[in-house]
């Protein structure tokens, strides 16, 4: 099974923004919080005369600092006060997720402590650099919280008086919540029109592309590193919908299993694993009420569900810009007879990996317990897929492999998660 354009190099800058955008979908009422925290953190770090690498590290840390948020109510707690209660859970979860993702593991410890008051943080046995980063993000996070509290004018701009109120409020916590030096140095930043007028996501993403090269985005990643980033992204889906997350992991495992039986190379198997893990990222944009609805969907709700495929494609294309992987992820609802969606592709336009994805996705969906329906047994699932093959919708060769190895495939589909089954 030969495939061209199997480039799985990643654009790390765009990946950070995709993570930030994905976090916005979990239930954040105030979108682009990570963008703003990162932008303010970069400018405060520059004011503190940190070197460029540290400044950019603070910027990207700000983008992803809330990656441990699991539920909407956790986010609401973060917007209740300057020192909200019960924030430990999302900090610990972020730490665990980041330590498991090798390319992002250096962010784990400072993000673990990004809600720790300075008078506690300074006493911890941590490297000074990690303390500084955690303290910086905590201050910038609370500045963005205060931005939501104080008055904006009729044009949506933060009033001059409100900027002063933010300065006054953070000054109250100088030395207790916040590192004194940071409070002193952030004041001129908070008075600057440039900062407040630059806080749109579009401006911040453009700003990031103009940053000087300091090595953060030019790192060389192994194939296993890229897989770990995909696993990290899949874990964000878990915060919105556990069954969607489990489905993605299992589709990835089934895609590896089927492609291996078809004689695919190890590299191609890992590429399919990436496509499987991320093929439903677009469901982050799907409203929870539709995603978890019990009973039939209305025509408009079904249309909303169908949109997830295109959203998944653009999520993936942002990370793997020059790779065919995003196409495989986006083709999992296409059918050989042209009856699928979103593009209505036909057999001549669907390569073998796309055909594998279609069968892996459908088989796993049928055999998975969902909140709104029972799972199918193996015999019923195979019967359903066979009918689709006979109608000319699914690939007979891939289905034959599934049928010949049905018990093992069913075990993969219904067992506990086994991240990255491809040999290292």
Automatic annotation (TrEMBL):
Gene3D superfamilies from the UniProt entry: Hypothetical protein af1432 (1.10.3210.10)
Organism: Vibrio viridaestus
Pfam family, one: HD_5
PROSITE patterns: HD_GYP (PS51832)
A GO molecular-function annotation: phosphoric diester hydrolase activity
InterPro entries listed in its UniProt record: HD/PDEase_dom, HD_GYP_dom
Biological classification of the source: Bacteria, Pseudomonadati, Pseudomonadota, Gammaproteobacteria, Vibrionales
Entry protein name: HD domain-containing protein
Superkingdom to which the source organism belongs: Bacteria
Residue ranges of domain HD-GYP in the record: 222-418
């Amino acid at each position: 099974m030969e495939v061209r354009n199997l480039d799985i190099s990643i654009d790390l800058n765009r990946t950070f923004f995709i993570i930030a955008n994905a976090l916005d979908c979990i239930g954040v009422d105030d979108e682009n919080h990570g963008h703003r925290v990162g932008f303010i953190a970069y400018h405060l770090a520059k004011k503190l005369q940190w070197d460029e690498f540290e400044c950019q590290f603070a910027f990207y840390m700000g983008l992803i600092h809330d990656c441990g948020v699991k539920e909407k109510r956790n986010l609401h707690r973060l917007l209740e006060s300057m020192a909200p209660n019960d924030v430990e859970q999302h900090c610990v979860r972020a730490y665990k997720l980041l330590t498991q993702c090798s390319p992002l593991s250096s962010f784990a410890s400072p993000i673990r402590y990004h809600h720790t008051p300075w008078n506690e943080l300074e006493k911890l046995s941590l490297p000074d650099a990690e303390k500084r980063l955690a303290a910086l993000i905590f201050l910038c996070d609370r500045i963005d919280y205060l931005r939501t509290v104080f008055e904006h004018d009729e044009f949506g701009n933060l009033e001059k008086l409100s900027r002063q109120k933010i300065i006054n409020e953070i000054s109250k916590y100088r030395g207790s919540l916040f590192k004194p030096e940071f409070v002193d140095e952030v004041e001129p930043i908070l008075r600057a029109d440039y900062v407040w007028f630059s806080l749109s996501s579009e401006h911040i993403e453009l700003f990031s592309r103009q940053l000087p090269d300091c090595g953060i985005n030019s790192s060389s990643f192994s194939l296993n590193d890229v897989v770990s980033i995909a696993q990290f992204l899949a874990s964000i889906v878990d915060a919105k919908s556990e069954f969607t997350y489990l489905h993605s992991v299992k589709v990835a495992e089934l895609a590896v299993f089927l492609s291996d039986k078809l004689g695919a190379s190890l590299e191609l198997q890992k590429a399919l694993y990436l496509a499987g893990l991320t093929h439903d990222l677009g469901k982050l944009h799907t409203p929870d009420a539709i995603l978890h609805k019990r009973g039939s969907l209305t025509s408009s709700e079904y249309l909303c569900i169908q949109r997830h495929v295109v959203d998944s494609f653009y999520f993936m294309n942002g990370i793997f810009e020059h790779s065919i992987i995003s196409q495989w992820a986006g083709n999992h609802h296409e059918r050989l007879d042209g009856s699928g969606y979103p593009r209505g592709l036909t057999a001549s336009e669907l390569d073998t990996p796309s055909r594998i994805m279609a069968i892996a996705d459908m088989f796993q969906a049928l055999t998975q317990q969902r909140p709104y329906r029972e799972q199918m047994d193996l015999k019923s699932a195979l019967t359903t897929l066979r009918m689709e093959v006979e109608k000319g919708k699914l690939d007979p060769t891939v289905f034959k492999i599934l049928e010949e190895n049905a018990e093992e495939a069913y075990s993969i589909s219904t067992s506990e998660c086994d991240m990255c089954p491809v040999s290292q």
